[in-house]
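Posting here for the record, re: magnesium ion.
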Amino acid sequence: MLQIRDLHVNYGAITALHGINIDVPKGSIVTLIGANGAGKSTTLRAVSGITRAQKGSIVFDGEEIVHLAPHKIVGRGLCHVPEGRMIFANLSVMENLLMGAYRRNDRKAFGGDLDYIFDIFPRLKERKAQSAGTLSGGEQQMLAIGRALMSKPRCLMLDEPSLGIAPLLVKTIFEKIVEVNKNLGITVLLVEQNANLALEISQFGYVLETGRIILSDASAKLREDPQVKECYLGG
Amino acid sequence: MIQFLQQLINGLALGSIYALIALGYTMVYGVLKFINFAHGDIYMVGAFVGLYVTPWVWKVIPPGQDPSKFNWNTTAGGLVVMLISMVVCAVLGILIERLVYRPLRNRPRLTVLITAIGVSIFLENFGQYLFGADPKSFPDILPDRTIDIGDLSIFMNQIVVFVTTIVLLVALRYIVMKTRMGTAMRALSYNTTAASLMGINNDVIIAFTFGLGSALAAAAGILNAINYPSIDPLMGILPGIKAFVAAVLGGIGNLPGAVVGGLLLGVLETMVVGYISPMYRDAIAFAALIFILLFRPNGLFGKIEKEKV
Ligand SMILES: Nc1ncnc2c1ncn2[C@@H]1O[C@H](COP(=O)(O)OP(=O)(O)OP(=O)(O)O)[C@@H](O)[C@H]1O
Ligand SMILES: [Mg+2]
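Prediction output follows.
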């Protein structure tokens, strides 16, 4: 569904990605793990078009998207939940969700989709009229995911959904990611520092180190890999 | 007491003009984080468009003969003149954004700011070339009459200013708070990156914002010309600066703030002129600016935005 080939990204003189290749098959959950500053967020930013790639190709659903503007990429069904969640704190929870559906014309279907989101994240329903800025960190993450789901994506890219959230809530959020993948058939590319959890729910994993993919394998195998164990799974 | 009430009414009428212009500053600041210093000149263009389209409108809708009597045709004609001017200025605002500001979108803020001053100087001078530098008298596009309530006299035109301003403010509030475009505008002004990740085409929303702000400035230009029917190509400079002060007063980026700031400044100015000295008419705005920057740099209603991490 998503193929990244020889992707290079520079920030001025700093090269963040030195030609990486990633494949995300349709219907799967693929994870990208790596230390701070490895280039994980940069990869997602390049795919969603908010950071320009210097070189390389990104093919989504058989079509090249590397040169497209971000809003067009969303229109194709590829949605990015960015690092730090980036919810609109000045808008209500409901308005945030509706902004997720900005490009959709099938207004009649919104009700059903909202129901689904409120069903998996009941807390959002209770707080739908509230200003999104007053939500807790965990609730904001739920909102960020819910908002992305409102765009009816076929592929969802999540950047560190566990960041700064209590372990119990992280577990819930990861369960929902699996649920969305299973029930709605949404393909997931998951960036995580919490390698344990990420490798548990994914089928395939990539390990990124200073802008290069150093390892890639089935997630079950990566969990047994001595190098991964030592560096990312806490020994 | 009567004098005070009289001054208050005059002040609110003037303040309505400032408020309408200030909204444009604050909305553009919201989405682009820069002060569009050419905005005051849009107000001037608005008045001139009114001047030039009035004869055409009058051909289609002949105004009443006695200007002191209320007449539906005259009123309808006046409204049409205002609407045309708003549309023309909206297009002009969108054009300026497209041709001048958009190519500079990712340049340093200061570059854009200086360019805006350049656009302003261009509009003023091109206006002098096109319309002539000498003041023109604005036609009586609305029936003029004074209404006396006891010793208090209110000009019909002032009521027109109030009613029109209120209608425009209600319409603006609806657009910004209830429509999809308006919500996108607020989303974009909070976080442009997140907005584009939601599939919002930032260019479209920014153009829309310029159009909306410019239309309000044009309305202000017409409303002011109805009350002070002498217009010239430099007439936008001072009201432009004062409306900018009003926007800062209310907290730049804050829509209700711009309205309150505008009304406050209008009243303040009339009171100073009425009770102290007309000499301070323009100084008061700058005094207010210095005051607010010293004691409440975020404006009366501005708050320091904090983002949760
Ligand atoms: N806007 C930027 N300007 C300059 N350098 C940047 C910018 N964004 C990221 N970088 C650099 O690019 C490299 C990769 O950053 P990136 O954010 O992709 O890392 P990451 O793997 O997501 O890290 P983390 O786990 O901390 O989120 C880092 O060295 C970082 O300093
Ligand atoms: Mg990151």
